[in-house]
Amino acid sequence: MNNAKLFIISAPSGCGKGTILSEVFKDSDAYYSVSCTTRKPREEDTDGITYHFMTRDEFESEIKNDGFLEYAEFADNYYGTPRAATEKMLESGRDVVLEIETQGAFQVKKLMPDAVSVFILPPSIKELDRRLHKRGTEDDDTINKRVSQASGEISKAYEYDYVIMNDELDDAIRDLKFIVDCTKNKNSDADRFKAVNMKKNIDEVLKNA
Ligand code: 5GP
User: What domains appear along the chain, each with residue ranges and CATH number?
Assistant: First the structure.
């Protein structure tokens, strides 16, 4: 038994989770899992670094080989967490961070109930839409699809262990860091971020969707 923790982080696209995660884990030796996907690379993607890009055939043969800890279809593409790397890192005592959507998050939580799941809320769906347009990495159709998916994703936030809101980036970084530190040290001070205590915030974002 070692003290390695698995962190599952979910957030709708455009919620700033990439920036938050790189800040929170920058001084730790946590292993940031590189997922496999069948989606097309974007300009900022590098194969093997942001994702392992695969064809559907390659992905489906990996499913048959039991190569994924979890996988899901999201926005017409497959996404999955390579099993071997994740398990090896945890066994070696390193924390592991999975940045995955909700279906995958629940699969992992079922397999590994000690994993810590955190959902990052946008301040509102309108703000999410504005951020995705500002990012400019996708066309309008794709953005509309991602925004309409966001409400569905946010409605799953109630089932996570912890929920934070990315209204101000610095606050979100501080809050996630606090949750990570508290869970590593078995300290209950982060309980105010438990999903049950953040219910009002989740309700509010969904009400204005
Ligand atoms: P994007 O296409 O914007 O990079 O990612 C779309 C969604 O897929 C995001 O919510 C992201 O967190 C999620 N995702 C990325 N990798 C994985 C994975 O390995 N498994 C699952 N289930 N979701 C993933």
Answer: 6-33+94-207 (3.40.50.300)
